[in-house]
Amino acid sequence: MGARLLRCAVIGAWCVSSVMLVAQVPSTFTTPQETVKRYTGAVGDFDFQGADLRAVLRSFAEVSGLNIVIDSAVDGTVDIKLMRVPWDQALDVILKSNKLSYIVEGNVVRIVPLTVLDAENLARQKLADSQAPTSIETRAYTLNYARAEELEPLLKVAVLSKFGNVQHDKRTNTLIVRDLPDRLVATADLIATLDKAEPQVEIEARIVQTNRDSARALGVQWGGGGRLDPQIGNTTGLNFPNSGSVVAGTDLSAASPSTTVGLAMRSITGALNLDVALSALERTGNGRVISSPKVTTQNNKQAEMTQGVQIPIQKDQNNTVTIEFKDAALKLMVTPRITAADTVIMDVELENATPDFSKAVNGIPPIDTQRAKTSVQVTDGATTVIGGINVSREQSSQDRTPVLHRIPLLGWLFKNDTSQDENRELLIFITPRIVRSPS
């Protein structure tokens, strides 16, 4: 019944193209995995209700003229109604709705369940894997610039087949490849592309460190005394105390004074004297340290430049004395990367460590450290300032005599004022130059 309905629905449109359909399989069946299909069958109406699936598929064989073989596992019914659609599209819809697929072998179309098709493909793949080809060859490639151990994993992923393998000889920097001839050709091409001399980068650094400091101190030192003594005609007129003396003074002078002014006053008899000393200190200093290290390194390889001293540190552990050395140096580490635009991207790490012996503990000075870490892009031959570290320190102090320093106008005689200003600045200039090997 289902076959008769199908023939009646499409007989008018089918008569024109039936001869051509018998001669060749429509392009729809040539590639079952296509995501976008073009349907070229004759257009018709298809109406099935509770029809046997196998009978419907056989009716398509009669209409299309194709040789259709239906797998024994195909079973079920069809409920479908399609108006004015190509017959090959209708067949495709019926197959998909029943989880079926097809295999084209010449002009024969096999219709099988998807599970059967997957099982056949898996068995076919296992058979192909078990039959290793006999045309496998072995070749050795000696590298000039690249490292064999670095190229080995790349070849395994990018070139070699499932039958191939690669090993490297570190002593001779050689790759030993075993694979099919066509894969060996691809391996040789890839090695020729990668085994090339990379350009180098000459890095010139100029490190400028400036120190400016000034100090100012102003102080006073004075003393005086009085004496009561019958020898100088100065007495108390009492039996006790008949004589005595008073001595007073203040020392608020500047430390290590460079200028001192003194004044001494005494009476004729020596019963009263006064000594005053005014001291002043003013110091200025400027320093500049320039370091210009230069180093050449390969592309993507880190270069390190160090200049300074090592401080020995004694450690006592488990009754064993050991000496360790701690770097107190200017250290510059640069990793250059050359871009296709002839610019250089540099990862820069700078550390400036200096010992401060003025604050040493048990003879071991603390290390004053300044660090900078950055990434910059510079044109070939250009100079860039990667940064500056500025340290400014201001300090002022006052020594004074309690209460007396508050006396109006004369209070400065009982004070010592000290001020200190220190400024340190570190600037780093870096110039990369690309050095290419001659062709």
Quick synopsis:
The chain is α+β, with helices and mostly antiparallel strands. 19% of the residues lie in helices and 51% in strands. It starts with a helix and ends with a strand.
Describe this structure in words.
This protein is 19% helix and 51% strand. It has helices spanning 2-14, 18-23, 53-64, 87-97, 114-130, 148-158, 181-194; strands at 43-52, 67-70, 77-86, 100-105, 108-113, 137-142, 165-169, 174-179, 200-228, 244-252, 259-266, 272-291, 294-298, 303-317, 320-338, 343-355, 367-379, 384-400, 415-435. It is an alpha+beta fold and 439 residues long. The longest helix is centred in the first third of the chain and has 17 residues, at 114-130. A hairpin with a 2-residue loop joins strand 14 (303-317) and strand 15. The model is unreliable at 1-27 and 30-34 (pLDDT under 50). It contains 7 helices and 19 strands.
